[in-house]
Write a structure and sequence with these properties.
CH_dom, 7 helices, elongated, 145 residues, CH_dom_sf, Actin-binding Protein, T-fimbrin, domain 1
Length: 145
């Protein structure tokens, strides 16, 4: 469910940029030709010239261009590098998309820190569970049902 939600968010932003959607987050970013336009759409600027992804070196360069732009824009990149995306590491790619959502979707609409804003939203949607944090209050899994 998380992957589908994130995929829909990515495709919505790619569509806004006039780009074709991707089928999956894992394979869709593997050569950088969709990740770079996504970052360009989110940041409202051109990053540079994409390489045709003929070799792994070209794919890595494309992805590094996007990751560098995200890092410069203070998007938290936790233990992810271009190699992880080329090798289709699902967990790290989902984490990357989550941090883009926090920065460019949730964070752009408020001066309140993204995590706090998300916590307020969860509390409003499911007040009966009395969620106060994103660690111990999620351990039972009840909030995810």
């Amino acid at each position: 469910m998380q992957a589908n939600t994130f995929l829909n968010w990515v495709n919505q932003n790619l569509s806004t940029a006039g780009k074709e959607p991707i089928d999956t987050l894992v394979t869709g970013f593997a050569d950088g030709t969709k990740l770079v336009p996504l970052v360009e759409a989110l940041q409202g600027r051109k990053l540079g010239r994409l390489n045709k992804p003929l070799t792994e070196h070209h794919r890595l360069e494309n992805i590094n261009m996007a990751l560098q732009a995200l890092a410069e824009d203070n998007v938290r990149l936790v233990n992810i590098g271009a190699e992880d995306i080329v090798k289709e590491n699902v967990k790290l790619i989902l984490g990357l998309v989550w941090h883009m959502i926090l920065k460019y979707q949730i964070g752009k609409t408020s001066k309140i820190p993204s995590k706090k804003l998300m916590l307020y939203w969860v509390q409003a949607v499911i007040p009966s569970l009395n969620i106060t944090n994103f660690t111990t209050d999620w351990n039972s899994g009840i909030a995810l049902q």
